[in-house]
Design goal:
- The structure holds 2 protein chains of 2 kinds.
- Chain A is an alpha/beta fold.
- Chain A has 2 domains: 148 residues, NADH:ubiquinone oxidoreductase-like, 20kDa subunit (Rossmann fold, 3-Layer(aba) Sandwich), CATH 3.40.50.700; 92 residues, no CATH class.
- In chain A, 38% of the residues lie in helices and 10% in strands.
- Chain A has a 5-stranded parallel beta sheet with strand order 2-1-3-4-5, sandwiched between helices.
- Chain A is globular, with a radius of gyration of 19 Å.
- In chain B, helix 3 packs antiparallel against helix 4.
- Chain B is built from 15 helices and 14 strands.
- In chain B, 61% of the residues are buried.
- Chain B is 43% helix and 18% strand.
- Chain B is α+β, with helices and mostly antiparallel strands.
- Classes of the chains: A alpha/beta, B alpha+beta.
- Chains A and B meet through helix 1, helix 2, helix 5 and helix 9 of A and helix 1, helix 4, helix 5 and helix 6 of B.
């Protein structure tokens, strides 16, 4: 028997579970969402499962194993709309640091018998493997943005997720610029908004967990950081965290490493 | 004639991460049993090399979206012990308070969303919501209050941004913390009601003689620091972990198995903490534990749901006490500069002791990182439980046996993302 409500599936690849937890963290909205959407596949929260196809798939995590590279293709085939959620799924995550390293050496650091472990040399975003309908960024994603994406899907409209920088959110929040006023190195000028500009409000520089904003001017940021006395090697470290393999951060970190 | 049966769960539900179980039976005899973790490895210990010591809390938080504070705290403890400093006063209170928030959030998630549906025969809490609307609403609000503590102090609930080695970036005022009080007072009553509710659930008759391991502190129910103790006489400082515990790799798991050196399995988590430290619980938590019929120790893993509820009550009461006694520190952090040193740190993640060790070079860079999450330490105990549980229950159908064994695994609130750094169950009968 077919269900009149759209079917939602939530998939996990290499990740920390934090982005799918964000759905459960939407405590005030969870039962409302469950009222209009059939949560058909969500193993973190439910033992039962309704077979596909699914109207909306939310995909968390990056592709790091040969098995997962095949599984994501099957997920795409059974999903009408597919949205990737979080820095792992949209940029490869912190585990993409292996992309600059020798994965065999990594294996031997962690495991005594690396031959038991089946892994790829790289951690790559979902969009490197399949067509993705929308990418929701953040490490972790914002629950408000997640609800916006689900609501937009239900109403067949484009999600309203701005690509401007964290600086805009600081202005909206009324936070004084931590870089100008306190000399704290901040990634805000090149980082996409969405978190609510939390770090500067806590007297800390943004550390780029929402990934690059639209057309980021990283060279200008680098000049600012240099004036604040930050060594280039630390700029490279700052670019190489949770969105290290997002193209703009990746290319800049490689340019400044040379 | 005994028939061989195979029970396999290929993807365990309602656990954090990707796990599986495989059981092969011949009549009453268990031929093979494996708790498998297939979560893909992410190599944190490898890429932490050459990062600054100060980056460890934010990077290791990403091991687990359910217990980031545990990772941040154990990492901070290791770096601070390496730098020879200790948090005191308001900074220490805030570190304990934000951890109370994580306990409330994670335990409420497990009690209501991951564990209770098993006892009541539902696939999920959302399925339970029609028949038990009051309970599900209560669970959601409790979880939200835990998240509010984390958000107020940490900036957000998943991967908080305000925790740093040596303290915080910004410390809240007393008035800000006081806004939490009315909700925490409600939460304390709700946790007591939760304990009464879960203590009436049907529990299988199943007890085991565990070696319980947990942190212990002379002055308080240990959360964010302490010595490592067991009910069999172990009492060591955190930097002696490597002298008493060891890890080994098995072919069926992406998570290393930990055991006592010269010994075997040990059990971490709420039951271990309760059995070692129950006398240090706060008054309301002690009273509800007693009313729920918990003695001085709890050895039935299925009743861990009751202990978790007691710990929610404790965490609410403790949070209220910490807020009451809080004075805003003059500085949000103290200076820590570890050089040419190895630091060890541990804390009580909601699911058990989380141990970190880092070697730091003369430039403050990490040269070696070692992280031992609670779930990888509990793997042996989980397998021992499953093997013991099957005895006398082989007459159950495959479906019944499978569900009950899944439930036995969920008793540990396994966090598989952490342990690999997975759950999937197979039963084979010959």
């Amino acid at each position: 028997m077919s269900s009149p409500r759209p079917r939602l599936a939530i998939w996990k690849f290499a990740s920390c579970d934090g982005c799918q937890l964000t759905l459960l963290d939407a405590e005030d909205h969870l039962l409302d969402i469950a009222g209009v959407i059939d949560i058909a596949y969500f193993p973190e929260a439910a033992r039962g499962e309704i077979e596909g196809p699914y109207d909306l798939s939310l995909v968390e995590g990056s592709i790091t194993t040969p098995h997962d590279a095949e599984r994501i293709i099957a997920v795409r085939e059974m999903s009408t709309t597919l949205v990737t959620i979080g820095a792992c799924a949209t940029a490869g995550g912190i585990q993409a640091l292996r992309n600059w390293a020798n994965v065999d050496e990594f294996l031997s650091i962690v495991y005594a018998q690396p031959q038991y472990i089946d892994t790829l040399a790289t951690s790559t975003p979902i969009s490197d493997h399949i067509d993705v309908d929308f990418e929701l960024r953040g490490c972790p994603i914002s629950k408000y943005q997640l609800i916006e994406v689900i609501d937009a899907f239900l109403h067949r409209r484009k999600p309203n997720i701005p690509r401007h920088s964290v600086c805009v959110e600081c202005k909206m929040r009324g936070t004084n610029c931590v870089m100008v006023a306190q000399g704290i190195p901040c990634m805000g000028p090149v980082t996409q908004a969405g978190c609510g500009a939390i770090c500067p409000a806590y007297d800390r520089g943004c550390y780029g967990c929402y990934g690059p904003s639209q057309s980021p001017n990283i060279d200008s940021l680098a000049a600012w950081w240099e004036r604040l006395g930050v060594a280039e090697v630390d700029l490279v470290r700052a670019l190489r965290t949770f969105n290290a393999y997002a193209p703009e951060f990746r290319d800049a970190s490689e340019a400044y490493e040379r | 004639m005994s028939v061989e049966r195979e029970i396999a769960v290929d993807y365990l539900a309602r656990v954090e991460g990707e796990g599986a179980m495989y059981l092969k039976l011949k009549g009453e005899e268990v031929l093979d049993l494996k708790f498998k973790i297939f979560e893909p490895p992410r190599f944190f210990e490898a890429f932490l090399r050459d990062r600054r010591f100060s980056e460890a809390p934010d990077i290791t938080a990403r091991i687990c979206g359910i217990c980031p504070i545990a990772y941040q705290t154990s990492a901070c403890n290791a770096m601070e012990s390496a730098g020879g400093v200790q948090l005191t006063g308001g900074l220490r209170s805030l570190r304990r308070l934000i951890y109370c928030g994580e306990w409330i959030e994670s335990h409420a998630l497990h009690v209501y969303f991951l564990h209770a549906p098993d006892f009541l025969g539902y696939d999920s809490a959302l399925g339970m919501a029609t028949d038990f609307p009051e309970q599900v609403q209560m669970g959601l609000r409790l979880k939200k209050i835990g998240n509010q503590i984390m958000t107020l102090i940490g900036g957000r609930e998943v991967h908080p941004i305000n925790v740093r080695v040596g303290g915080f970036y910004r410390v809240p005022t007393r008035r800000e913390l006081e806004t939490l009080v009315p909700d925490l007072e409600w939460a304390l009553e709700a946790a007591a009601a939760t304990t009464r509710w879960v203590s009436g659930l049907p529990f299988p008759d199943f007890e085991r003689d565990y070696e319980f391991v947990a942190l212990q502190h002379p002055d308080e129910y240990a959360i964010q620091e302490g010595r490592i103790a067991s009910n069999r006489g172990l009492n060591i400082s955190v930097d002696e972990w490597g002298d008493h515990f060891e890890e080994s790799q098995v072919s069926w798991s992406n998570a290393l198995h930990a055991r006592r050196k010269g010994g075997g399995a040990y059990h971490l988590g709420p039951m271990a903490r309760y059995s070692l430290n129950s006398e240090q619980l706060t008054p309301v938590a002690r009273k509800v534990a007693e009313e729920a019929g918990l003695g001085s120790s709890c050895n039935n893993p299925f009743r861990s749901i009751v202990v978790r509820a007691v710990e929610i009550a404790f965490a609410c009461e403790e949070a209220l006490r910490l807020i009451e006694g809080y004075t805003r520190p003059d500085n949000p952090s103290i200076e820590v500069e570890p050089r040419d040193v190895t630091g060890h740190g541990a804390s009580e993640a909601p699911r058990g002791t989380l141990y970190h060790r880092y070697a730091i070079d003369s430039g403050g860079l990490i040269t070696e990182a070692h992280i031992v999450p609670p779930t990888s330490q509990n793997q042996l105990s989980i397998e021992d439980d499953l093997r013991a549980y099957v005895v006398g229950r082989t007459q159950l159908t495959d479906d019944q046996l499978q569900w009950q064994l899944e439930q036995a695994i969920r008793c540990y609130d396994p966090c598989i993302s952490c342990a690999t750094h997975f759950l999937d169950l197979t039963v084979d009968r010959e």
